[in-house]
Design a protein that fits this description.
TIM Barrel, binds pyridoxal-5'-phosphate
Length: 367
C-alpha cells in the first residue's frame, strides 16, 4: 500500500490534476543501476528540478538509497541540492560562469570546466578547489577539445573527475559510441589521477560497459526507458491524473475543440478533463482528423484525445467506458499503461521533455 508522506504545490482542489511521485520507485531505480555498474560509483543527475520531480524530495530519497554524488546544470540548483544533502559531492555541468564563482565556493560546489577560459578562471580561485574537466568527444556542445586536455592539466587546477558525454547512447549499435569511447581513452592518461565518467542512463546499457569510475544517470532514475528498443527495465516514478469535469454525447459529424479539427465518426461520448498545456501536457498531443493524439486511461479503458489540447482543458473519447464506471472516475495521463516515453512519442517529443515540463499547477503527492 502506498502512503502519502507529504505534498506540495497548490492545495488539493476538485478542478485540479494530481501528480504523484513515487520516491520508493526512484530509490529502487537508483539501487538497480548502482548494482549494474559496480564497482563503479553511481551518481544521480538532478538538474531541472530533478527532471520535474522536485529536488527537495528526490535528492534526500536518492541520498538515503546510498547516492553520494549529484550533478546539476546550474549553480542555483546546486545550492538547493546542498541544502538537503550536506555531505554530498555536487558537480555543476554547465561550465563555469564568472558570476557564479562566489556561489560555488560558498556552497562547496564543483564546476565542470568545459573550456580553456573556464580553466583560466578557476585557476585564479584561491585554494585549489576541486573541479571536473569535460572533454568533448563528438557532441560539439560543451567541453574541451581532446588536444587541449594536456594544456589544461598543466595549469594549477585540482581536477578530480574527467568526463565526456555520449551523442547517441540510446542507440547501442551506433558507431559513434565506439568512436567517443576511443577518443576518451586516448586522453585519459593526460589526467591519470582523476576519476573518469562517460555514461548517462543509456550509456549504462551499452554492450561496451563504458562505466569508468562514476556514472551519471538521469532519465532512467525517473522511470524513463534507457533502452528504447527494448522493454523498460526501470520502475515508473511519476503518475498523473486529471478530474472529469463534464460528460456529453455528440453525434457523428460533430466537431470538438478549437478550430474544429476533430470530427466524430459516430455517436460519441466525450469527457472534458481538467488538464491542458498550461499544466505541461503538450499541445502537440492534440488529435485531429489527420492524426491521432494522446491517450488517457479511464476505469481501465484506453481513451483517445479528441481535438486540440487547450490551456486548461482536454477532451477525450470515453465511448467505451460505461456510465457506471465513469462515475467518480479520473483520467490517468501517466500511469502503468501510459509511460512518459509513450506520451512523448505521441507529442512529437521525448519523455525527457514531458518530465521537465511537468507543471507547477498540479497538486503534488509524494509517496
Ligand atoms: C543530462 C546529462 C546526463 C544525464 O542524462 P540522461 O540521459 O538523463 O541519463 C548526464 N551527463 C550530462 C553531461 C548531462 O548533461
Amino acid at each position: 500500500m502506498s502512503v502519502v508522506t507529504f505534498s506540495s504545490g497548490p492545495q488539493r482542489e476538485e478542478a485540479q490534476a494530481i501528480l504523484t511521485i513515487d520516491l520508493g520507485a526512484l530509490a529502487e531505480n537508483w539501487t538497480l543501476l548502482s548494482a549494474r555498474v559496480e564497482p563503479a560509483e553511481c551518481g544521480a543527475v538532478v538538474k531541472a528540478d530533478a527532471y520535474g520531480t522536485g529536488i527537495e524530495a528526490a535528492v534526500p530519497a536518492l541520498a538515503k538509497a546510498g547516492c553520494k554524488t549529484f550533478f546539476v546544470a546550474h549553480a542555483s540548483e546546486g545550492v538547493r541540492v546542498r541544502k538537503v544533502a550536506p555531505q554530498a559531492t555536487i558537480y555543476v555541468l554547465n561550465g563555469l560562469l564568472p558570476q557564479s564563482i562566489p556561489t560555488l565556493i560558498a556552497h562547496d560546489l564543483r564546476p565542470v570546466l568545459g573550456s580553456m577560459d573556464n580553466v583560466a578562471a578557476w585557476q585564479n580561485v584561491p585554494g585549489m578547489r576541486a573541479c571536473a574537466l569535460h572533454v568533448d568527444t563528438g557532441m560539439n556542445r560543451l567541453g574541451l577539445a581532446p588536444h587541449d586536455v594536456a594544456g589544461a592539466m598543466s595549469k594549477n587546477i585540482a581536477v578530480d573527475l574527467l568526463m565526456t558525454h555520449f551523442v547517441s547512447s540510446e542507440e547501442a549499435s551506433d558507431a559513434t559510441n565506439d568512436i567517443q569511447i576511443a577518443r576518451f581513452a586516448a586522453i585519459r592518461n593526460a589526467a591519470p589521477h582523476a576519476r573518469t565518467s562517460l555514461a548517462n542512463s543509456s550509456g549504462l546499457f551499452l554492450p561496451q560497459k563504458p562505466y569508468g569510475d562514476l556514472v551519471r544517470p538521469g532519465y532512467a532514475l525517473y522511470g524513463g526507458n534507457p533502452t528504447p528498443d527494448q522493454k523498460n527495465p526501470m520502475r515508473a516514478v511519476v503518475s498523473l491524473e486529471a478530474p472529469l469535469l463534464q460528460i456529453r454525447t455528440i453525434e457523428g459529424g460533430d466537431k470538438v475543440g478549437y478550430n474544429a479539427q476533430w470530427t466524430a465518426k459516430r455517436r460519441t461520448k466525450l469527457a472534458t478533463i481538467g488538464i491542458g498545456y498550461a499544466d505541461g501536457l503538450p499541445r502537440a498531443a492534440m488529435a485531429t482528423d489527420i492524426r491521432p493524439g494522446g491517450e488517457a486511461m479511464v476505469a481501465g479503458v484506453r481513451c483517445p484525445f479528441a481535438g486540440r489540447v487547450s490551456m486548461d482543458l482536454t477532451v477525450i473519447d470515453v465511448s467505451d467506458v460505461t456510465d457506471a464506471a465513469l462515475k467518480d472516475a479520473r483520467a490517468q495521463l501517466l500511469c502503468e499503461e501510459i509511460t512518459v516515453d509513450d506520451l512523448g512519442l505521441r507529442s512529437a517529443t521525448i519523455g525527457y521533455e514531458i518530465l521537465t515540463r511537468l507543471g507547477a499547477r498540479y497538486h503534488r503527492r509524494y509517496i
